[in-house]
Amino acid sequence: MVGQRKWSRRTAAIVFLTPALLCLLAFQLLPMVSSIIISFTDWDLLTHWTKMNFIGWDNYSQVFREEKSYTAIRNVFVFLLGYLPSIVVLGTLLAVLLNRPIRGVKLYRAAVFVPVITSWVAVSIVWRWLLNGQSGLINYLLSMVGIQGPIWLQDDLWAMVAIILVTLWKDIGFVSIILLAGLQDISEDYYEAAELDGASAWSKLWRITVPMLSPTLYFVVTISLINSFQLFDQVLIMTNGGPAGATSTIVEQVYRNAFQFNKMGFASAQSWVLMAIILASTMVLQQVQRRWVVYDR
Amino acid sequence: MTGRKKRVANLASHLFLALLAVALTFPFLWMLTGAFKDNLEVVAMPPRLLPSRWNFDNFAEIEAYFPLYRFFANSALVAVATTLLQLAICTMAAYVFAKIAFRGRQSLFVLFLTTMMIPAQVTLVPLFILFSRTDLIDTYAGLILPGIFSAYGTFLLRQNIMTIPNELMEAAFIDGASYYRVFFSVIVPLVKPTLSALSIFAFMSSWNNFLWPLIAVNSKELMTLPLGLSKLQGQWSTEWNLLMAGNVVSFVPIFIVFLFAQRYFIKGITMTGIK
To answer: Which residues of B touch A274 (CB under 8 A)?
Structure first.
């Protein structure tokens, strides 16, 4: 009986786990290992893979020699600088508003969520139209208040501003819904106790809401940071990396090098540099969070 | 707060939220009405929100350039298959990680979790090569397979299944149930809410996915909606009315799903933030 039970447990484990293990192996582990190997070769996909040459760290050093790489990395950091603080501040404000017990709040929650569910491709195409220099609605609205709008997506300064604004527009619902869930976890008791002590709205925000929300804020910052480094869909559709590389990003270059120029080795090296940047910045965040994230509730 | 102060605060909140809601949804309204304008009115200055004549031809005319409804069917097929397979594979694995002990299980689980940290771009090139070596590029299988597994989904379901008391399983075992029986009669019914949220999330990611179809598909017959739309805009960059018609076709289904399953959409999002 015991032996039979043990046998059935082992088979059950194997049967239930095998599909996931096969997927993990085929779509994660094997590609990861090959990606490392390919990144040390000059492989261009056109030659047979048995004929690829190992060229050591050349691809990696080329990543740091190419001006394009610096442009992409710099662009992503410019994006981060505009995007990250705005999404955290605006997302928190919106979450606080959405948490108020007012009538129709569910409708507002649904409305802010609509951009989140839509594909980046559809959204980018709509915004390309809205931001069109001549026939775009945005510049028309600006002209009504006497502002001559830029040719957004063809201007090397405003193209990045447009990408940042549109990404904020699409992501704010996502961020504020996560923060809303965090807010709803905070017990009313804290606020009631603070009110008895005569605390102002401001001090309630800084002494209760922000510290209590800090684990969720930390999560939102991490996710937004990781997503920012992977900026791609909206860039490819809205500006195609232009004008003159002004909105070129790391992933966009990985894509171009691999699938347009067949530089598989170089693209793989670039993707590992991306991985290193993401890893390093999340580690920095991890260090920083110790100072301000409050875990004991 | 005094009654009056409260009223003012509520009014201000309404004002802000209404303004924001309009700003966030207006582009969709513009897209919707744009899809019914003709190609002159769509770029006319000053712009008008509503078309002077509702033009339904755009939805048919777009077919002359691109098989939009074929893209639609492809997207639906890929999204449904991806979602069902992902749920099955992740739930089964989560069951083992939560309830069926064996030696090395913990290290295996850690391995699963580690892959969650690898950005998709790292595996993109080798995945493409693997799929082209196995002749899966330009096939439905090639579109579906990379999405059928999610370490994150496995992790989430495992956390959920762990909360199911062992006594419940033991009782089933005493009644003579096997591990398979327990999985279908005890585990799956109890994790249904999580499964619903995950399925909505998986469906949305697949429906909206762009990068993988972009490299995994060449022929028109296999393109999904986002990919087809991106190609359409490349070729007919000024026919905004047609592009908007295409956008509407890609937006309406996910919007309808959202209206009916709002709770699960939002749960799917908030679950990503679970500590």
So the answer is: 119, 121-122
Instruction: Find where tokens 């339904």 sit.
Output: B56
Token code pair at residue A5: 């039970």
Q: What are the pLDDT digits (tens) for A211-247?
A: 999 999 999 999 999 999 999 999 999 999 889 999 9
Residue pLDDT, tens place only, A111-141: 999 999 999 999 999 999 999 888 889 999 9
The pair of three-digit structure tokens given for residue A21, joined into one six-digit string: 């293990």
Could A10 and B102 be called an inter-chain contact, meaning their C-beta atoms sit closer than 8 Å?
yes
**Residue ranges of chain B whose pLDDT lies below 70:** 1-2, 236-237, 273-275
Residue A5, Cα to own-chain centre: how many angstroms? 47
Which residue in this structure is represented by tokens 């031809």? B57
CA–CA distance, A93 with A190 (Å, rounded to integer): 20
B122 and A119 within 8 Å at the Cβ level: the answer is no
Chain B residues with CB inside 8 Å of A1's CB?
none
Predicted ipTM of the assembly: 0.92
Measure the CA–CA gap between B224 and B213, rounded to whole angstroms.
7
H helices of chain A, where?
Answer: 2-23, 30-38, 58-65, 67-98, 105-117, 120-130, 137-144, 158-184, 188-196, 201-204, 210-229, 233-238, 250-259, 264-292
d(C-alpha A89, C-alpha A220), whole Å: 11
Average model confidence (pLDDT) for chain A?
A: 90
CB contact under 8 A, A125 and B46: no
Q: Which residue does chain B place closest to A130, by CA atoms?
A: B27
How many Cβ atoms from other residues are within 10 Å of residue B248's Cβ? 20
Q: Which residues in chain A are contacts of B25 at CB distance < 8 A?
A: 111, 114-115
Nearest CA in chain A to B153: A20
**What does the pLDDT look like over B36-64, one tens digit per residue?**
998 888 888 888 889 888 988 889 888 88
Instruction: Give the chain B residue whose CA is nearest to the CA of A180.
Output: B270
**Model pTM?**
0.92
Tell me the shortest Cα–Cα distance from B180 to chain A, in angstroms.
7
